[in-house]
Design brief:
The complex is a heterodimer of chains A (167) and B (272). Chain A is mostly helical. Chain A has six helices and no strands. Classes of the chains: A mainly alpha (167), B alpha+beta (272).
Chain lengths: 167, 272
């Protein structure tokens, strides 16, 4: 129950922070840091997969409502929610994830979290930016935007961990 | 039947994933155009309040810049007033009075904007109550900004020049040839003018103005200047335009109300 309320609270905080602060931070004409992915990143390991999918759907849909881009964030977030369990398996330490732990820097270290975040962000941004352009004409300029934005989003997310969860 | 059930059970997550993605894609495809504009308007009504609060804080930080812009505009207007008052002809004044006002400007402020997406939108803090309605033009003192897409009681959504859905007729100042002004999604500083035939002589640096071939904008609103042009397979130029409006610093805008818009549209529609 505690974990549920905590995640609902995180959902609201992440969305508000994204819409009110991050969407106004634009660097160099190409990049917006998408920090709202934190919600998906930090969901507990043992969350049932259908809940992860529905949570991703709700997250994306809320973002879409705020940015007026119906469907784009939804599609990208659902995709990320779907691949997350496979990614976690791929990145698992030799003896698996321990019980009572969460996918955070605090438990699995900086390097693990960086790899995890980068992969999730990259998949999300690839889907989001190509759906936004919806054609292959600007393939390379879009790819550049994906890469630059991914770097920015990843670093923002990783740095945010040191501010929010210090214990 | 049992195998079907077992199949569904086994692949339930994959099926759920596909279902959700299909919903997302349907939303994306269906949600273009009308629904999207309705949704944005609804959303602006609720988030408009929050944005205007956030904006209050941002406004404070850009006071200096805004002051600078305003004083520049003041200076320009004063200069024009001087020129006009010396050259004004009493005959034109009378005909203007008889015809009544044609255009009216509603001052407004941007409370939310996006610049770096493919489909950018602006929100301004004037709506139906202040006389802002769909299909009104929006300009700044620098030049063309966009067209009102939808308005709620106190806010309106503007589809700016830097949105891939934007289309407007614009002309070259020196020779009056007009083409279609649109945005290619690459940079908020540049737009493209298409459908200028190949025999027209172009000069880099020439000014692009609105053509007045619609009821939305009066003729001669500044858009930008020609940066470069090329003939791309066919008989039409592809002209790159450096925009006068700096969307990144945009703050105060004017909505143009055309008192004769309805009359003009009615007449035009009779012959469709």
């Amino acid at each position: 129950m505690y974990i549920l309320t905590r995640n609902i609270f995180r959902f609201a905080v992440v969305i508000l922070f994204q819409v009110l602060v991050m969407d106004n931070v634009m660097i160099n004409g190409y990049m917006i840091p998408y920090i709202y992915l934190l919600f998906i990143l930090l969901m507990p390991f043992e969350t049932p997969r259908w809940i992860q999918l529905l949570a991703g759907f709700a997250l994306g849909l809320t973002m879409d409502l705020f940015t007026g881009t119906l469907g784009m964030h939804t599609a990208a977030s659902v995709l990320v929610a779907f691949v997350r369990p496979y990614l976690l398996d791929l990145l698992a330490p030799r003896d698996g994830y321990e019980a009572e732990t969460f996918p955070r820097i605090h438990y699995y270290g900086f390097l693990w979290f960086l790899k995890y975040t980068l992969l999730i962000v990259l998949i999300h941004h690839l889907a989001l930016f190509y759906l936004e352009v919806f054609q292959l004409k600007h393939f390379f300029s879009t790819l550049l935007r994906v890469i630059l934005s991914s770097i920015l989003s990843t670093s923002t997310i990783v740095i945010s961990q040191y501010f929010v969860f210090r214990k | 039947m049992r195998t079907l059930l077992r199949f569904i059970q086994k692949y339930s997550n994959l099926l759920l994933f596909l279902l959700l993605e299909i919903i997302a894609v349907v939303l994306m495809v269906q949600g273009s155009g009308f629904q999207r504009s309705k949704l944005i308007a609804l959303n602006r009504q609720t988030t408009g309040y929050i944005y205007s609060k956030v904006d209050g804080a941002r406004e404070y930080f850009s006071l200096k810049e805004v002051n600078q812009q305003l004083s520049e505009e003041n200076l320009k207007l004063r200069n024009r007033l001087d020129i006009l008052s010396s050259s004004v002809d009493s005959a034109t004044v009378i005909s203007d009075l008889r015809g009544g006002h044609h255009y009216f400007f509603i001052q407004s402020r941007i409370v939310q904007n996006s610049i770096f997406k493919q489909y950018n939108y602006l929100t301004i803090n004037k709506g139906k109550k202040q006389g802002v309605f769909r299909d009104m033009g929006v300009i700044s003192d620098q030049g063309l900004v966009g067209i009102v897409l939808e308005s709620s009681a106190n806010f309106a959504t503007v589809i700016p020049l830097i949105n891939r859905d934007f289309r407007l007729s614009a002309k070259i100042k020196s020779n009056n040839y007009s083409g279609i002004l649109q945005w290619d999604g690459s940079s908020p500083r540049y737009a493209v003018l298409n459908e200028i035939p190949f025999h027209v002589e172009l000069v880099a640096g020439d000014t692009i103005l609105t053509s007045g071939f619609s009821s939305i904008f009066p003729e001669g609103i500044k858009v930008g200047r020609i940066e470069s042009f090329s003939l791309e397979k066919g008989n039409f130029y592809n002209i790159r335009i450096e925009l006068f409006t700096d969307f990144q610093r945009l703050y105060h805008v004017n909505v143009i109300r055309n008192y004769r818009q309805e009359e003009q549209l009615n007449l035009e529609n009779q012959h469709r």
